[in-house]
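Dear colleague,

Following up on Tuesday's group meeting, I ran the structure prediction for the two-component complex that the binding team flagged. I've pasted the input sequences exactly as they went in, so you can double-check that nothing got truncated or mislabelled along the way. The structure tokens for the whole assembly follow below. Feel free to forward this to whoever is handling the docking comparison.

Inputs:
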Amino acid sequence: MRLSGAKAIVDSLKKAKAEVIFGIPGGMTIPFYDAIYENAGAGGLRNILTRHEQCAAHMADGYARVKNVPGVCTATSGPGATNLITGIAVAHMDSSPMVAITGQVPRTMIGKDAFQEADIVGIATPVTKFAYQVSNASEIPEMIKAAFMISSTNRKGPVLIDIPKDVMLEEVDIDYVGRPKIGGYTVRSGEPHPYSIKKALSLIIASEKPLIIAGGGVIISGASEELLKFAEMMLAPVATTLMGKGAIPETHPLSLGMIGMHGRPEANMAANEADLIIAVGMRFNDRTIGKMDKFGESAKIVHIDLDPAEIGKNIRVDVPIVADAKKALAVIAAKLSEMGSKREENAWSRRVASFKEQFALNANGHKNGLSPGRLMKILRDVLPPKGIVTTGVGQNQMWAALHFKVLEPRTFITSGGLGAMGFGFPASLGAKVAAPDRPVFNIDGDGSFLMTEQDLATAVVENIPTVSLILDNRVLGMVRQWQCMFCDKRYSGIDLGKVPDFVKLAEAYGAEGIRVETYEEFEAAVRRSLKAELPVVVDIPISMDEKVLPMVPPGKTLKELILFG
Amino acid sequence: MAENLGELRIISATVEDRPGVLFKVTSLIRRRGFNIETITVGGTEKEHTSRITISMKGNVAIVEQLVKQLSKVPEVIKIIELAPAESVYRELAIVKVLAQDPSKRSDLLNYISIFRAKVIDASKDTLVIEIVGNPTKINAFMDLMRGFGIAEMAKTGIVALSRGTKPQSERTAEKP
């Protein structure tokens, strides 16, 4: 069958089982949107018009993280495409599958600095797994197929396909699409090498004080069950990175919560004392391990990661296992089980339990006003286990990470690697589109929320009722905290003033706005929002002097944590 | 016999011959902060395939990390570090040497013959000399030429292949 290039894009997206596309049309994607129009109706692509392309990318990302399939976003050439970049970079840093389709000026105009021309393949290359400009329509079916394959296999990530407008208008035969062949890209099995497993097992068996650190890779590979089995067998406590939250239910006795700069003290203490660290699907980021050469000084390190380039990138490890987390943990647990090496309570497990008691974080604030920690606890009590939480970036994100106990994988969605403010709200919309029957709460700060709040319009018009909880301190709180602690309270460029009124802002869009001043009002607002039919914005004024503590100052070791400010 | 490369380490990649592949490779090298000495690109025995040869200074860990990162570029078909003992390396340089002084010309021609270099152009005041070899040989030759006075010089960068029929599998990124 012969189709226009534009129709071939839609056809290929549907063959790749895409259901939703987030984006904004423009001059160079008019043929594509015309093909979407023709395809509308039952079984067609759901076309969600956003108010900013950055939000389209974040929505696609939020959708992908909940649904475990590539999220699809689109923008026109030039500014449309460049606006996608922040969202693409977030997905790249957090290994989230995404397919971005951009329009481009016609082939004859490329390189002529045409109106709305940008070298988007050049711009996107450093922040994508693969970026490609299609040069004739016959490539479209194969390259879209390749985009989905590359974005969702091996270590996942975003792929950008740039399509000139005249290519969208060319005709193409779509009957046969071979298996896409892109150079050296092979889908690896993810099976661990028996030799590395053997070496890891000997360290595991010899260890007296094992610690598991689970990263986002555990969630991406769906390895929670295997992780728990392994941890319980070894009686090994499990700390997680920010991206790993949800890898183990955080109410489990072996869960230590998040490790790192703003990690829980019990997790950081365990890393200081462990004699073996089994790091799974994590990449030894500076925010996770503190001073690189001092991390886990007393420990041997086993590193399980699907990406060979992560091995030895940041720190030297004793046993690398290049494998899918689920497969590697399953093999290790099975071997341990064969050997009958199940551990009983011992000195280490008692020591770890004592850390947990010693550092049971006092979530009550020490200043006037509402304590973010206590708000997080109330939210956890009300929200069902499958309820989804997204976050902004900054203090709000760290309070959520410290105090909101995640119970299931893929229910805590945050911009971990890139740390893009403004991520939480659009990501919540993408999450809600992926899981319309589950409540989705965006824990946000006022600064972060203001970066993408215009998409309240999308939420209202497209009927995507998520709830944004704005921890509203009228400042860029995390920067202020650093200026307080490290710049002698010389506050510079952090005052957001007393605008806007978030209740009125929500109402201006036709969403619901609520302001809460007490814990009771907060709990009532959360309960009411669980069933909301409209998007809700809950404004929660808090003191700007609330800090995220404990904290390991930048460049310091995990031993040098500050517990109280 | 291992060829003398000094501190240089050589990475050889076969890549798809598509627009933008060289950009993707160099963009990654820049982004990850690697420092390279030379990079060459040209055809291979296969159609639609190019070979990129990179020489760089650095320890084993740095070179391994670059190989692993580059092997993630989808258009990179195969990438390895070539082991000096099992590979051959060549670079071509052309150099324009000052040769006004007739008394020095015979010395100059002697060196050219010792190094198996070749005069490819001559004028009243200069000779243009072509030399092929490994980088150490070329550097030694250039040191001698400096004594005569170098007007201009250009080098191709290093190209390399592994010896024998053994496939290039010395250090692949796939190994755990």
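Chain A has a mean pLDDT of 94.

Cheers,
M.
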